Amino acid sequence: MEEIEKLKRQIELEKQAHQQTEIILEKKALELYETSEQLQMLNENLEQQVKSSVDELKKTEKRYRHLIESVQDIIYKISTDGIFTYVNPVIKERLGFSEEEIIGRHFSTLVLPSYQEALINFYAEMVQNKEESTYNEFPIKAKNGNLVWIGQNVRRIENDDESIELVAVARDITERKKTEDTLRATQARFSNFISNLQKGILVEDENRTIILVNQLFCDLFAINLSPSDLIGMNCVSLADEIQGHFKDPENFISRVTEVLEKREIVVDERLEMVDGRIFERDYIPIFIEGQYRGHLYNFSDVTDKHFAHERLRKSEEKYRGILDNMELGLLEVDKNHKILRAYDRFCEMLGYTNEELVGQNAKELFLPEDEKGKVNEKQEEREKGEASSYELCLIKKDGTPIWVLISGAPIIDENGVTVASMGIHYDITERKLLEQELEKAKEVAEEARQAEKQFLANMSHEIRTPLNAIIGMTHLMFDTRPTNEQFEYLDILKTSADFLHSLISDLLDMAKIEAGRIEIHKHPFDLVGLLRTIQRVFQIKLDSSPVEINLLTDVKITGNYLGDDLLLNQILLNIIGNAEKFTEHGSIDVMVKLLKEEDETCWIEFKVSDTGIGIPADKLDLIFQKFKQVDSEQGHKHKGTGLGLAITKQLVELQGGSILVKSREGDGTTFTVTLPFQRSKNEVVKNNHVIKEADRSLESCKILVAEDNAMNQKYISSLLNKWHFTYTIASDGKKAVDKASKERFDIILMDIQMPNMDGYEATITIRNTKNPNQNTPIIALTASAMLDQKNKAFEVGMDNFVTKPFSPNHLLSVIQNYVNTKSEYAVMVPDEENTATKTYENNIFLDNERLTDLYGDDREYAADIFQTFLDDVLPDFQEISNLIHQQNWEALRKLAHKLKPTLGMVGLTELEQSLIGIENRAKEKPEYESLQYMWSLFQVKLAESVPVLRAELDKLLAQ
Ligand code: ADP
Predict the structure, then answer these.
(1) What proportion of the chain, given as a percentage, has pLDDT over 70?
(2) Is 613's C-beta closer than 6 angstroms to any atom of ligand 1?
């Protein structure tokens, strides 16, 4: 109850409190009411105010929103823990995400994983350090996966010192990044290029601040700083630092100033360093849009190049010096003769300046008309890449000629094509003038030589003619049974005349040898007999002297040999004659041995050793020269012409032999002659040196002698009287022709050189005019032994040739040879043809008529000729094959001409005609094939003829 009471009371209390409260409340409510009235009013005012400020705000917000939405940057807000709370719609455009897709995400989810951590830390720090704003760049991934570079400004928003959010303005900087990358790559490449460039590069701006430099530049000037250290430095101080490297630092500095002032490109400026290096420097000013913005220096170390160049220059200078000193003028011309380069010496040679020559046509400028052909030929050679030397006459600027020897060569490009040619000219004008003078002198000398030859020929004639008479008369006088005293005088007379004869023969021999007109006549001869005769001759000569002559012959030397015994005799007489002349005591040993026998050739060695004065070693070479005698120290004098050994050597060599001499002064001399001979089976005709009697049957024959020299007339008439011939003498050619026209003779002996009409002319007249002697044998008598005179005699129609002085027996044999034939004709058969068939009637191959004409019944002579033809002449025909093969037509013509009469002499008249055909054809520059064909036919016939000739020879020998 109490409780209730308590409660009642409490309720009461509460009721009271409540009532009081109600009262208070009522009061309050009233107050409130009054207040709310006020408030209402206030509120109404306020509402009015708020409304207008909300309107205002709405307007502002709209403006901001519009602003935010109209910017191209992404604007977003994130909470301090990185969650997007707001993003503007630009994000859709930039990254492809909608605002809904972004809001609520952590910002790092958009960032490339590799950047995430750094970025989270970056912004965490920003918040922590309460930084007001930051800027950062990083790549993010767009919705389509593309990489987008973002550059963003982030502002931290705080309230009551508490960070509440971050507001960011993010810009798409992908394009800029790309440009930057490209720029960086370009820059890297560029600086790579600069640093790798083998040149020192230095780039300065307009204020001379270094903006680029490479390592090589630092290396060149031994700068210890790296290129990047140098960038930004002022170049003036750098120049100060490096000037010490230059040989002339002051000049370096002043030159830099000068170059910088001018601002013109300078290339390859040479700079000498103090240590000997040589640099080359380029200066290139840099202008951008017409504005000077700095310059580039480019240094290179050209020391090696410089010295190589210097060496080259020096060497070129040296060669140019040599060329100038050697007086060699160089000229380069192109293919059209246009002058490309003319060197100083060449200009000097021709009197032009370099400028006057270069570009001109060389051919037109200084080549005479008649030399142009030669130059064209040379040009063709150059085009083929060939070099050659030749002489040319050029016309100098002053119009005078200059002779040059040119060594020309093509200038060939890398494709092997001749592009120009170079000629080295050597002035040979003086030599040319000298040559011309020499040529004139040679002509004069040649004239003199001709005159000398003529003189020699005349002298030979003038001397031989009287000599002939003297020797002839001596012969005749020996025949008149002289007293002992007369005999002795005659002997002296004959010896002197013989000496004179040998002297003149020597001179003539030499002339003949020199003119290549000596003939080798091969006969069978008795070698041992010849040697014994020589020994005997010298034994008689040495009779009263203490020198003895010994002859030692090899036992293998037996029988007869085929060769020119007269020439051998002459050779041995010369050598032994010298030995006799130069030996006062002791002996002369003649040793003859058979060295070897091969292919029918016997090589025989003749060794003549004396114990005479000998020949000094230094003179040994001289003795074989013409007119050379050794001057003996003892003043030894001897007679002689100095021709003997020269002739001997020539005669030995002409026969295919050799001659050697060995000597020691004071001890004696040995001459060794080696000569080839063939063995001969034929008998040797012995000469008995007694004037033969003429055949009595010939006494009736009549002879005409044409001779102008009285003494010779006498000599010949004495002989003819002795032989009981009938003769008439005509003292010149004219008279001879006259006599021949009136009376028939059996033979005419015709001198060549005669007044009024010479022997040739007389013969031509007799042969070509109607007279009884048109076919009479005419024998030339001449003092000249020259082969050309002999040939001429045959050409004009003479039958034979006798050289003065002739021996009586020789003349008789010739007369008998010709008269015999005719007498046989006259006595036995009146018909010439019948005579012809008589001796050679059985041989249908050979021209019997011709053979009878030639040999009559002299079978021995015929056999000799046949033998000679088969042994000696036949092999010569082989040479014709060679000459045809070589197409050496001139030599062929000569050989055919030489060989053709030999065919006639053995009765091969048809072959003789064929050979004449070949000879004629050879004159006309023939076709090789046609001549070869003619020659083949000839060879077949000749081969067929050989057995016939052999059979004929056997027959002749047997009879
Ligand atoms: P020559 O007619 O004058 O003798 P050669 O031509 O026969 O002319 O000789 C020339 C020279 O060689 C002689 O003059 C002589 O001086 C020298 N000579 C030749 N043979 C002998 C020799 N047997 N002994 C010494 N000297 C010789």
Answers:
(1) 82
(2) yes
Q: Is 578 helix (H, G, I), strand (E, B) or coil?
A: helix
Q: Is the CB of 482 under 6 A from ligand 1?
A: no
Q: Whose CA is nearest to atom 7 of ligand 1?
A: 644
- Split at pLDDT 50, 70, 90, the class of 824 is very low
Residue ranges of alpha helices (H) inside 515-584 are 527-541, 565-582
Q: How far is the CA of 538 from the centre of ligand 1 (A)?
A: 17
In a shared domain, residues 877 and 956: yes
Residue 38 inside a domain? The answer is yes
Question: Are 906 and 869 contacting, i.e. CB atoms less than 8 angstroms apart?
Answer: yes
Q: For residues 811 and 737, what is the distance between their CA atoms, to the nearest angstrom?
A: 22
Q: Closest residue (by CA) to atom 20 of ligand 1?
A: 578
- Nearest CA-CA partner of 536 in 557, 547, 550, 525: 550
Residue 884: how many other CB atoms lie within 10 Å:
20
Task: Report which ligand 1 atom has the smallest distance to the Cα of 646.
Answer: 6
Ligand 1 touching residue 629 (CB < 6 A): yes
Pick from 778, 779, 733, 736: nearest CA to 757: 733
* In a domain? residue 76: yes
Residue 170 and residue 91 share a domain: yes
Q: Which of 578, 580, 590, 625 to mutate to test the pocket of ligand 1 (most atoms within 8 A of CB)?
A: 578
Together in a domain, 566 and 658: yes
The secondary structure of 651-666, three-state, reads: HHHHCCCEEEEEEECC
What is the position in ligand 1's atom list of the atom closest to the CA of 624? 6
Say if CB 724 and CB 699 are below 8 A apart: yes
- What integer pLDDT is reported at residue 733 of this predicted model? 93
Q: Cα(642) to centroid of ligand 1, in Å?
A: 7
Which two structure tokens, joined as six digits, stand for 75?
């604007």
Q: What are residue 593's phi and psi, to 5 degrees?
A: -140, 155
Into how many domains does the chain fold? Answer: 6
Structure tokens at 469: 């008479």
Nearest-CA residue for atom 14 of ligand 1: 629
Ligand 1 center from residue 620 Cα (angstroms): 10
* Nearest of 506, 504, 519 to residue 468 by alpha carbon: 504
Nearest CA to ligand 1 atom 22: 579
CA angle 562, 564, 567 (to 5 degrees): 150
Mean pLDDT for all residues in the chain:
81
Sheet containing 778-782, strands listed edge to edge, beginning at the edge strand earlier in sequence: 726-730, 702-706, 747-751, 778-782, 800-803
623 Cβ below 6 A of ligand 1: yes
Q: What is the pLDDT, as a whole number, of residue 941?
A: 82
Ligand 1: distance of its center to the CA of 647 in Å?
Answer: 12
Q: Is the domain of 95 the same as that of 37? A: no
Distance 674 CA to ligand 1 centre (A): 19
Write out the residue range of the structural domain in which residue 614 sits: 519-680
Supply the residue whose CA is at minimum distance from atom 3 of ligand 1. 642
Whether the pLDDT of residue 902 is over 50: the answer is: yes
Q: CB atoms < 10 A from the CB of 656, how many?
A: 12
**384 and 406 belong to one structural domain:** yes
Same domain? 527 vs 617:
yes
Cα–Cα distance list, 888 to 47, 883, 927, 931 (Å): 148, 5, 12, 12
Strand order in the sheet with 278-288: 210-213, 200-204, 291-301, 278-288, 266-272
Q: CA-CA distance, 906 to 950, in Å (whole number)?
A: 11
Q: Is 630 in the pocket of ligand 1 (CB under 6 A)?
A: yes
944 domain residue, yes or no: yes
pLDDT value, residue 637: 46
Question: Which segments within 206-277 are labelled E, that is strand?
Answer: 210-213, 266-272
pLDDT of residue 163: 84
Confirm if 156 and 127 have CB atoms less than 8 A apart: yes
Exposed e or buried b per residue across 442-461, where buried means at least 16 C-beta atoms within 10 angstroms of its C-beta = eeeeeeeeeeeeeeebeebb
